[in-house]
């Protein structure tokens, strides 16, 4: 078990002129794609690392050129306009709902790199002259490449379609959620889940109860122990699968259970499913007639997880100077499962 370290990169934001291609599009239509750039974009995509654009250009002209080069499909939420690059980075970060400290920005102009760094100091900035070395950078080499990693861009594209439908929907949100035909599955983790489970502990920060990461070998030992229960959950709807989006580690003792870790991908917060896994654990604790506790450590970004615990009626019973808390739930109030989705349980 390891405390938070420097984050893996989740998104590479590219300039276009003299970065993705040689030349300046506004000066000549005969710009030429940089050598190996298509292979680099494809490899990043296969590793589950997203790509986007921050370019001072005419949007229609730039997108037409990207389509001509047949690489337009790699770029999510492209920002092609005449505003500052830092504004573009902030918009992409908001649209993707990822941390600034998981973004890498590539540009050939030192002025633009400095401008982004001055406004967004957590962003890693790299001069475009170094683009061929990107694939060898440790922060761009995830320890595991899971099925969810390989589908990450497609999952974002599916989510864009969901958002379009939601924005166009006229009526109460509950009716929109019903129409998604959601299916939420809670499973007991097996060895085949452990690569994704490790990835979740490394990548999830906003809805992570402790900020602690667990590697594959930690998790393998835990699932082989009768003293622990490791649960994973997956969400699907009519557009496709969100993938494995939640994880919880519960230490089971004779008279008490302790939730050592609870996390949920921020991608599913708006679907109202954040408390389902917690409700399942609470019901199981009550069934086994044990007291239920939870570890919580406040970090710079997990305030929302504390609100989730508070909403579920957990109370703080102990807190130290470092922000580590022990929470307890008397199990007198357990929220019902939402009736706008189908719940599947696959736990022994």
Structure in words:
It is a single chain. The protein is α/β, with parallel strands linked by helices and 348 residues long. Helix content is 31%, strand content 26%. It contains eleven helices and 15 strands. The strands form three sheets. An eight-stranded mixed β-sheet has the order 13-14-12-11-10-9-8-15, sandwiched between helices. It has a five-stranded parallel β-sheet with strand order 5-4-1-6-7, with helices on both faces. Helix 3 (85-96) packs across helix 4. The longest helix is centred in the middle third of the chain and has 17 residues, at 152-168. The chain starts with 10 loop residues before the first strand and ends with a strand. The relative contact order is 0.11. The model has no long low-confidence stretch (mean pLDDT 89).
Brief overview:
Helix content is 31%, strand content 26%. The chain is α/β, with parallel strands linked by helices.
Which features does this protein show?
single chain, 348 residues, alpha/beta, 5-stranded parallel beta sheet, 11 helices, 31% helix
Report the major sheet. 8 strands, mixed
Q: Gap between N and C termini, in Å?
A: 26 Å
Unreliable sequence segments: none
Shape: elongated
Main sheet: strand order: 13-14-12-11-10-9-8-15
Rg calculated over all Cα atoms: 22 Å
User: Averaging pLDDT over every residue, what do you get?
Assistant: 89
Percent range of helical residues: 25-40%
SS class? alpha/beta
Q: Helix and strand string, N-terminal first?
A: EEEHEHEHEHEHHHEHHEEEHEHEEE
* Strand percentage: 25-35%
Number of beta strands: 15
């Amino acid at each position: 078990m390891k405390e938070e370290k420097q984050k893996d990169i989740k998104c590479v934001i590219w300039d276009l002129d003299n970065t993705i291609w040689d030349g300046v599009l506004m000066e000549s239509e005969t710009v030429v794609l940089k050598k190996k750039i298509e292979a680099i974009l494809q490899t990043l995509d296969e590793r589950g690392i997203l790509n986007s654009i921050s370019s001072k250009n005419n949007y229609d002209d730039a997108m037409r050129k990207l389509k001509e080069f047949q690489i337009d499909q790699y770029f999510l939420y492209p920002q092609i306009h005449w505003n500052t690059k830092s504004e573009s980075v902030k918009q992409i970060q908001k649209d993707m709902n990822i941390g600034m400290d998981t973004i890498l920005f590539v540009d050939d102009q030192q002025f633009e790199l400095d401008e982004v760094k001055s406004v967004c100091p957590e962003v890693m900035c790299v001069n475009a002259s170094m683009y061929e070395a990107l694939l060898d950078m440790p922060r761009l080499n995830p320890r595991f490449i899971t099925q969810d990693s390989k589908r990450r861009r497609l999952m974002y594209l599916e989510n864009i379609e969901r958002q379009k439908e939601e924005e166009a929907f006229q009526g109460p949100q509950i009716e929109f959620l019903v129409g998604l035909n959601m299916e939420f599955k809670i499973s007991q983790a097996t060895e085949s889940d452990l690569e994704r489970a490790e990835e979740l502990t490394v990548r999830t920060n906003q809805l992570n109860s402790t900020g602690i990461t667990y590697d594959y070998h930690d998790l393998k030992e835990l699932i082989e122990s009768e003293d622990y229960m490791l649960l994973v959950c997956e969400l699907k709807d009519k557009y496709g699968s969100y993938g494995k989006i939640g994880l919880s580690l519960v230490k089971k003792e004779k008279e008490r259970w302790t939730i050592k870790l609870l996390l949920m991908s921020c991608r599913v917060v708006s679907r109202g499913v954040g408390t389902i896994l917690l409700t399942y654990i609470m019901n199981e604790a009550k069934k086994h007639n044990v007291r239920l506790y939870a570890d919580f450590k406040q970090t710079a970004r997990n305030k929302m997880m504390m609100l989730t615990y508070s909403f579920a009626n957990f109370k703080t019973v102990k807190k130290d100077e470092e922000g580590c808390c022990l929470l307890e739930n008397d199990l007198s109030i357990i929220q019902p499962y939402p009736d706008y989705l189908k719940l599947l349980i696959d736990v022994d």
